[in-house]
Amino acid sequence: MTSRNAEGHAVVVGASLAGLRGAEALRQAGFAGRLTLVGDEPHRPYDRPPLSKAALTGEIAPEATALPNLHALDAEWRLGVAATGLDRQAREVRLADGATLSYDRLLIATGSRARPWSNPTEAGLAGVHTLRGRDDAAALRRALAAGPKRVLIIGAGFIGCEVAASCRALDRTVTLIDPGPAPLARILGQPVGEIVAALHRALGVDLRSRTKVARLEGDASGRVVRAILDDGSEVETDLVVVALGAVRNTEWLSGSGLDDGPGGVLCDEAGYVLDMEGRPDRAIAAAGDVARFPHPLYDGRPVALEHWGHAVAQGEHAGRLLAGAATGAAYAEMPAFWSSQGGVTIKSVGLTEGADAMVFAQGSPKEGRFVVVYGAKGRCIAALSFDSGRWLPAYAEQIAARAPFPPIRVGVDLHGLAVLQPGFPEERTSS
Question: Which residue range is the domain that position 84 belongs to?
C-alpha cells in the first residue's frame, strides 16, 4: 500500500454498527492516518436489535448493549454532535457545534431514524414513543414498567410486531393497529402475514388489520388518553408506540451535489457515492441503512437494506475501499435478517420485492416450523424460515446461483407443491 493510501484524515459520520466496522476495516487495511468518528448520540456504538426485545422485557439493560471493538482504532470520537453539512469542494464536514472537519476520505454511515407520528402536536403528547435508539428503549422500558392500562402500537412491521410480543411477555394489554391486510404482508406477502397475525393473536394481542389511526388525543395535562381510528371508533390508551418505519438520515447532505434522496445515498457498484450526474466521488463511500446501491443479485436495482449483517459487511467493504485495499469487486453480500416474536425465530435470506410466486418448501404452517421460498420470473429470489433456520444456507446458495423456481430440495422436485401468489398489498413500495 502506498503512503498516500496509508496517511491523511479519514472521517466516519455515523457512530453506529456500519460506521464502527468501517473504521475498524480502515485500520485493518493499513490506514495509519488520523481517524475521526462523528455521532449525533452521546453513546459509543451499541447494538440495536435487542432494543425492541430483551431491553424492553428487562432481560438486559439498554446501556448494556455496547458493541465490542474488534480492532484497535486509535480514533478521535466526536459524540453528541450531529453532522449538518458537507462541502465536497473544500472536503469539509460541518458539525452542529460550529466546528468543521477536513477529510481526505469520508464514510457516510448516518443510518436512519424512526419515522415520527405525522402530527407534531400529537407526537409531542406525553406517553407517545418511537423506538430507534438506546435512549428510546430506556424511556419505553420505564413506561412499560409503570404499568400502562393499554399499549397501542401503530404499525405492524418488524419493530411493531417485536414490541407487541415484548409487551405481551410483560403481560401488558396490547392493541396493534395495522393498515395492511396482515402484519408484515407488505414484506412477506399475505399468506405469511396471516401466519404472523395468528401468532400475535395467540399471544393475546388485540390485532386490528386494515385499520388506521386518524388522530391521537390528550388530556388537559398533555398526556395521551385515546386514539381515534379511521372508522370513528376509539381506543383508550396511555402509552402509544409509533412504529411506522424509518427515515434515512440524508438531510445533512443537502447542497452537497450527491444523489441523496429519501431512499438513501446512491452508490455505484463498488460503494463510492454518486453525484447528481451519476459520477462517483472516490473520496467518499457509504454503508448501512443510509446507502442505496445496485445489487447484482437483483439485476442492479438500487436497494437500501436495514439489516444488521448488511451493516457489518457493507461497513467493512467501505472501509477497505477507502483504504485503497478493495479488490474492485462489486459489493454483493446476500441480504439476510432475523426477528424474534413470541418465542418464534423468523429468518430470511434474499429480497422478496418483485416476487410473483411463493411455495412452502419445508415443513408446514400448521406445525409452526416451515420455510417459504419466493420466486420472480422463474427464479428463486428469497427464502424465509419460521424456527427452521438450518435450511436457509441451502436456499441462499440457490438464490445466489439464480436457481429456477420452484426450487429443488435434496433431489426432490417440488413442482408438485402448491405455488401461491404472495399477495403483496397494492401500496407496497421499493426499499
Answer: 3-113+247-322
Q: Is the pLDDT of residue 26 over 90?
A: yes
Considering the domain architecture, whether residues 238 and 133 belong to the same structural domain is answered as yes
Question: Is residue 338, in this structure, part of any structural domain at all?
Answer: no
Q: Which of 244, 268, 287 is the last residue of a domain?
A: 244
Residue at which a domain ends, from 244, 266, 295: 244
| One domain, residues 217 and 365 | no
Q: Each residue of 73-101: pLDDT tens digit?
A: 999 999 999 999 999 999 999 999 999 99
Confidence of residue 330 (pLDDT cuts 50, 70, 90): confident
Half-sphere exposure of 152 (CA within 13 A, CB side): 24
- Total domains in the fold of the chain: 3
DSSP string, 238-303: SEEEE---EEE--GGGTTS-B---TT-EEB-SSSEEEBTTS-EEEEEEE-GGGEEEEEGGGTTEEE
Cβ neighbour number for residue 237 with a 10 Å cutoff: 24
Which pLDDT tens digit goes with each residue over 138-162?
A: 999 999 999 999 999 999 999 999 9
pLDDT in tens, 353-370: 999 999 999 998 888 899
Cell of residue 52, nine digits: 425492541
Q: Round to whole Å and give the CA distance between 359 and 357.
A: 7
* CATH, residue 402: 3.30.390.30
CA atoms within 13 A of residue 164's CA, in its CB half-sphere: 32
**Do 15 and 164 lie in a common domain?**
no
pLDDT at residue 428, rounded to an integer: 42
**Confidence (pTM):** 0.94
C-alpha span between 203 and 340 (Å, rounded): 13
394 contacts 368 by C-beta, under 8 angstroms:
no
Q: Tell me how far apart the alpha carbons of residues 53 and 141 are, in angstroms, rounded to a whole number.
A: 10
Is residue 430 one of the residues assigned to a domain?
no
Residues 34 and 52 in one domain: yes
**Smallest Cα–Cα separation from 198: which of 428, 361, 365, 362?**
365
